[in-house]
Design goal:
The protein is an all-beta fold and 343 residues long. 0% of the residues lie in helices and 34% in strands. The protein has no helices and 20 strands. A hairpin with an 8-residue loop joins strand 14 and strand 15. It comes from Scleropages formosus.
């Protein structure tokens, strides 16, 4: 009853007796068939129907709520449910609980609700919850939260009721080489009275390039006083203004002269359109590296690297693997404690 071999077992079946009707509690069911080397028979045929109401799912609205199956009555035994909350680009998620009653145990080994800072259980854990104490709010660091409910075969409690909200104000983005900013609810119409602000920060010596893949804001004024987006060539609204934009003509692609870009989006109380999608990426050295193997080098190699530069590479390979780095050539300024130039 779930997406993995470690999920709660519904049953094992063999011989010629047809198994009963089987129903999962979530939107995932893991099925395994195995035959040995002795004898074979006609086998089986099965039909699955995913139109029933269960638990779990993908949630993409700007606000919403979800609960344990059967809430406010006791939840099911031996169930596993997954919720994926996905915010628009550049937004963050806050998860709050209005009611919470799961079987209490040391280290929450029996029934538990786990919250992960990403789009799967492979992401960093943020909370591992059980008992009847109302949990504190949980905040994502990026656009995704993944929630897993796991129950055992014993005690059932009243379950939980949770709500979530996406927010886009005061977001600081660093330690990324590229990303996407979107108006709330994009590609649907943005809400009235929205106010979003993002600061994108890259490393020393690098700049930020940006371009708009979609752009549709209210345009009833040549001065953009109703719904608008503002771009600043720096970390805040005191930095030089690149421009104020509205209507359906996207801002021209551009780049910062320094290491940061500040973006403000605001809507008024009336007309709303589909909003915008802005793509940005770090211009300079560093970046995200994927695949089973590859190579990278200092900026300008084999010539001298520039002064006052900081390059960060994020290398990611397949799950379960490790990464070996071989340095073929190395010529960096010497200091006993590597206080000057360093890798």
């Amino acid at each position: 009853d779930g997406g993995f071999e470690t999920s709660p077992l519904i049953g094992k079946f063999c011989e010629s007796q047809k198994p009963p009707l089987l129903v999962s509690h979530s939107n995932r069911l893991w099925v395994k068939f195995r035959s040995d080397s002795i004898a074979t028979f006609r086998g089986f045929t099965a039909h699955w129907d995913g139109t029933l109401t269960g638990c779990g799912g993908t949630l993409t609205t700007s606000t919403g709520s979800f609960s344990s199956p059967n809430y406010p009555l006791p939840y099911h035994s031996n169930s596993e449910c997954y919720w994926h909350i996905r915010a628009t680009g550049g937004s963050r998620i806050i998860l709050e609980f209005g009611d919470f009653h799961l079987e209490s145990s040391t280290n929450c080994n029996y029934d538990y609700l786990a919250v992960y800072d990403g789009n799967s259980t492979a992401a960093s854990p943020l909370a591992h919850l059980c008992g009847s104490t109302l949990p504190a709010p949980v905040n994502s660091s990026k656009e995704d939260l993944f929630i897993k409910l796991r129950t055992d075969s014993n005690i059932n409690a009243g379950g939980f009721l949770a709500s979530y909200t996406q927010y886009c104000q005061g977001i600081f983005i660093a330690n990324q080489s590229q990303g996407i900013l979107e108006s709330p609810d994009f590609p649907n119409s943005y809400p009235h009275l929205a106010h979003c602000s993002w600061t994108i920060q890259t490393t020393m010596g690098n700049t930020i390039n940006y371009t708009f893949a979609a752009f549709d804001l209210e345009s009833t004024s040549s001065t953009c006083i109703f719904d608008y987006i503002k771009l600043y060539n720096g970390p805040n609204e005191q930095a030089p203004l690149i421009g104020t934009f509205c209507g359906n003509t996207p801002p021209p692609p551009g780049a910062t002269t320094g290491t940061s870009l500040h973006v403000v989006f605001q809507s008024d109380f009336s007309i709303s359109h589909t909003g915008f999608r802005m793509l940005w990426y770090q211009n300079g050295c560093g970046g995200d590296l994927f695949g089973p193997s590859g190579s990278f080098n200092s900026p300008g190699y084999p010539n001298r690297y520039p002064e006052n530069r900081e390059c960060i590479w994020y290398i990611q390979t397949a799950l379960g693997s490790s990464i070996q780095i071989t340095i073929h050539e190395f010529d960096v300024e010497y200091h006993p404690n590597c206080n000057y130039d360093l890798l």
